[in-house]
């Protein structure tokens, strides 16, 4: 690996009290390359990105960009922008209900006439030029939400880089850009990134998806416990090598398929009138059923219908353990034994500034209430048991949930619902944004719930995950179930073919 770096970060340290988030961390990225930044949850990746963005000030560290040095202590977001550091995060700052032209103009400004009125023809013309330059197949007037996930991400990247013109002195930092994309969409995005890098852009690529690193990255850096533990070239390492670098040890090999839990009994869930109104589902005890489909296929809507957030069709019906239930909202669903873990953890699933104990007790407050008062001692006692049972890495059950890594946050959220012993467990992207170690642990938790008799519906954009964990997979398209894969072992390639069969039908 050449040392002629376009971007060089040296000696970055950052402590939060007694916790050393970064410890003399350094990396180098060459111009015109994709440089992967890897590490488990809590490794320091997010802190390093925040330091580069000027959101966090380090205790020490410097940045060299295109041969010019800058002190990172006191580095601000304005400094980052002035230096040409561009950031596109997993939770993009684009606006789905606005057009492509409007999204590209927000932040940089609209073309206006002398009276301050927007010159829409000029806005559209500039947008068309940007779309052509970045080879994005979209109309300036298209609503962003109407585009595929990959195209929306490419619009976000173009928005960040649009004013670079032919200059190549900046750096694009992508934080988990493919977390919610299907394999087909991932391939489209990675192809675009390769083209951008080949034109001279320097891309720092943060991801948990190691197969993407192997296919698209030129170089990489691995962080663990705030320190750089390895630099590598993907062509010289294997997938298992990367796993060992990240985890610090080899993970136990896991069977690619799952033996069905031996749980007898009638279906725990029956439903019809789901999706667009004609989808039906039957879920057995101990069964893990996957839901596959591109973004916009109705996967999340289906789970939300079962949980009572979205109404069923007029003639729709749901049965849990043979009893018909009218779900007027989540409360009725919970009483019937349904649990739901949504895909947007920060927005919909966690109380970031509350302690772990209160995050766990929120769905079982009655167990900790005495004479109308919630017992903090009872909450903490129950939380200590849950932290142990679900192997949540934390100093104390009183720690704020926001202080945990993403994987440990997700384990707390799963523990919250599983303590209710649900009959039906609805999971939407349960391993999104977690590292390989936490992913394996979450899969184990899901299997354990199924072995206890729960029926599991699992939505995932990762077809390899569906193939590894599920007994069968339903393929959803435009709110309708169009196919089912049940022959074991399930295969990722077969699921891809079924999801995109419409294109060749």
Instruction: State the low-pLDDT regions, or none.
Output: 253-257
Secondary-structure-based class equals: alpha/beta
Q: Which outline best applies?
A: globular
Oligomer: single chain
Question: How do the strands line up in the largest sheet?
Answer: 6-7-8-3-9-10
Distance between the termini: 46 Å
Radius of gyration: 24 Å
Number of beta strands? 22
Report the portion of residues in β strands: 15-25%
Structure annotation, total helices: 17
Q: What helical percentage do the residues reach? A: 25-40%
Account of the 3D structure:
- By secondary structure, the protein is an alpha/beta fold.
- Helices cover 32% and strands 23% of the residues.
- It has helices at 45-53, 77-83, 100-105, 120-133, 149-161, 183-198, 210-216, 239-247, 299-306, 330-335, 345-349, 356-361, 376-389, 406-418, 436-451, 463-469, 492-499, and strands at 7-16, 19-29, 34-39, 60-65, 68-71, 85-88, 171-175, 202-206, 219-224, 227-232, 269-274, 279-283, 288-292, 317-320, 323-325, 338-341, 369-370, 373-374, 424-428, 455-459, 472-477, 480-485.
- The strands form five sheets. The protein has a six-stranded mixed sheet, with helices on both faces.
- The radius of gyration is 24 Å and the shape is globular.
- Mean pLDDT is 87; it is low at 253-257.
Which helices and strands appear, and what pairs or packs with what?
Layout (H helix, E strand, L loop, with lengths): L6 E10 L2 E11 L4 E6 L5 H9 L6 E6 L2 E4 L5 H7 L1 E4 L11 H6 L14 H14 L15 H13 L9 E5 L7 H16 L3 E5 L3 H7 L2 E6 L2 E6 L6 H9 L21 E6 L4 E5 L4 E5 L6 H8 L10 E4 L2 E3 L4 H6 L2 E4 L3 H5 L6 H6 L7 E2 L2 E2 L1 H14 L16 H13 L5 E5 L7 H16 L3 E5 L3 H7 L2 E6 L2 E6 L6 H8 L6
Parallel strand pairs: 3-8, 3-9, 6-7, 7-8, 13-20, 13-21, 16-19, 19-20
Antiparallel strand pairs: 1-2, 1-4, 4-5, 9-10, 11-12, 11-14, 14-15, 17-18, 21-22
Helix pairs in contact: 5-6, 14-15, 16-17
């Amino acid at each position: 690996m050449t040392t002629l770096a376009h971007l060089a970060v040296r000696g970055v340290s950052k402590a939060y009290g007694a916790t050393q988030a970064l410890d003399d961390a350094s990396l180098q990225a060459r111009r015109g390359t994709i440089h992967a930044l890897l590490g488990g949850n809590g490794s320091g990746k997010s802190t390093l990105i925040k330091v580069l963005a000027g959101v966090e000030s380090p205790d020490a560290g410097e940045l060299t960009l295109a041969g010019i040095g800058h002190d990172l202590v006191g580095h601000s977001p304005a400094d980052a922008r002035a230096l040409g550091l561009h950031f596109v995060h997993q939770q993009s700052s684009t606006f789905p209900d606005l057009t492509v032209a409007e999204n590209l103009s927000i932040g940089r400004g609209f073309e206006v006439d002398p009276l301050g009125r927007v010159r829409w023809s000029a806005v559209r013309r500039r947008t068309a030029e940007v779309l052509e330059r970045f080879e994005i197949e979209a109309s300036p007037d298209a609503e962003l939400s109407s585009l595929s996930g990959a195209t929306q991400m490419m619009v976000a990247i173009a928005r960040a880089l649009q004013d670079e013109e032919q200059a190549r002195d900046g750096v694009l930092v992508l934080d988990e850009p493919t977390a919610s994309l299907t394999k087909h969409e991932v391939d489209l995005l990675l192809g675009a990134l390769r083209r951008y890098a080949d034109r001279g852009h320097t891309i720092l690529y943060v991801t948990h998806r190691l197969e993407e690193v192997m296919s698209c990255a030129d170089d990489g850096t691995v962080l663990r416990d705030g320190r750089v533990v390895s630099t590598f070239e993907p062509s010289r390492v294997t997938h298992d090598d990367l796993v060992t670098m990240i985890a610090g040890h080899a993970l136990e090999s896991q069977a690619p398929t799952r033996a069905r839990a031996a749980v007898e009994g009638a279906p725990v869930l029956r439903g019809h009138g789901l999706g667009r109104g004609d989808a039906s589902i039957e879920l057995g005890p101990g069964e893990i059923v996957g839901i596959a489909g591109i973004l916009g296929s109705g996967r999340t809507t289906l789970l939300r219908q079962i949980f009572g957030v979205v109404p069923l069709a007029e003639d729709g019906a749901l049965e849990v353990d043979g009893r018909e239930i009218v779900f007027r909202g989540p409360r009725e669903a919970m009483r019937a034994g349904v649990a739901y873990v949504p895909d947007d953890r920060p927005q919909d699933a966690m109380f970031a500034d509350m302690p772990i104990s209160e995050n766990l007790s929120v769905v079982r407050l009655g167990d900790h209430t005495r004479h109308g008062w919630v017992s903090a001692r009872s909450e903490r006692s129950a939380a200590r048991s849950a932290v142990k049972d679900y192997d949540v890495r934390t100093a104390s059950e009183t720690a704020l949930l926001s202080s945990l890594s993403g994987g440990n946050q997700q384990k707390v959220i799963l523990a919250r619902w599983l303590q209710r012993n649900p009959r039906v467990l609805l999971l939407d992207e349960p391993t999104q944004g977690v590292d390989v170690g936490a992913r394996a642990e979450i899969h184990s938790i899901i299997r354990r719930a199924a072995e206890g008799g729960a029926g599991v519906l699992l939505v995932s954009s990762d077809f390899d995950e569906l193939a590894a964990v599920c007994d069968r997979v339903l393929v959803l398209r435009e709110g309708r179930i169009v196919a089912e894969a049940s022959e074991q072992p399930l295969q990722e390639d077969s699921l891809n073919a079924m999801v995109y069969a419409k294109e060749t039908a």
